[in-house]
Amino acid sequence: MSRTIPLADHRTSRAAERWETLLAGAPGVTAGAPLADTRGRALKDLRISVTDRCNVRCVYCMPKDVFGRDYPFLPQSALLSFEEIARIARAFVSLGVTKIRLTGGEPLLRRHLERLIAMLAALRVDLTLTTNGALLAKKARALAEAGLGRVTVSLDALDEPTFRAMGDTDTPVERVLEGIDAAVAAGLAPVKINAVVKRGLNEHAIVDLARRFRGSGHIVRYIEYMDVGATNGWRMDDVVPAAEILARIDREFPIEPVDPNYTGEVAERWRYRDGAGEVGVIASVTQAFCRDCTRMRLATDGRLYTCLFATEGHDLRSLSRAGADDATLLQAIAAIWRARGDRYSEIRTAATPRSSKIEMSYIGG
Ligand code: SF4
Fold this sequence. Notes:
binds iron/sulfur cluster; single chain; alpha/beta; 15% strand; 31% helix; twelve-stranded mixed sheet
């Protein structure tokens, strides 16, 4: 069954041609019917980047020497509006998505974000957000009142010099800790805390963070330093493997493995043997988890990506702005997912070329 796109006009003819090709052979989509990619993975998670800007310059994501004053960030006109994001998210939910994560850049920099959160909360999904915490103390209550369910806060160290070195920032670490407290007070608990570990910079913070948050109910997830994008100067030598991270914690606070909460959970779970809670590791480099990857990413300018390490995306914004109806949008998303075969972390080596990979600050983690 071939399909023509009921587009109001063909201003974006090249994009339209791509969509025509993509949709032409695609079998019909029934909302709610299971949708699997070429590796049998279901579409369950949507990550939405609402801005490519940030108020911090983490060395593993947005090095200041690249993302300086003159960096060509996206103009406002290129960003999806909240209405466009909500419409696309609705299509994803009808295709089986049960979890939406808002990311960036730094999502709390996007003005009136509460409006978008209220729209997405109406979709009755697990709605969460990843933030660097610098603005969280001010915004936590409004986010929760708008319908946000949980937050994940990036915090790579507790001592000021290391925290500032990792984030290349003047933001004091206390500001982020106040943000976590404000999130708890607003009912966004338990808070997940993401700590990227880079050799030579913050290994010592591994046990500090465990000591600080064990018994609090919050879960620290340690992330292996990744070769995201093409600008962070990644080397395999700078990776602290998950096994070493866990060994460091275990020496101080004995831990044991715990079964995942669900298939496709990104962080591997470990709990303290003395009952003081959990930690996690996200080991994309040494223990690839592509087999169960259920995530799609929507960039702030409306391009869809099937992998964090992708080099190319699909321009959903042009389809949407050219007048495609909901059925066509649904069809387009389904066709992309069905054709998906990504498994970057399974095939990555120290020599894997990086030049054309998209930046994490644009697509969100
Ligand atoms: S590398 Fe790509 S396919 Fe593998 S887990 Fe990450 S996002 Fe998913």
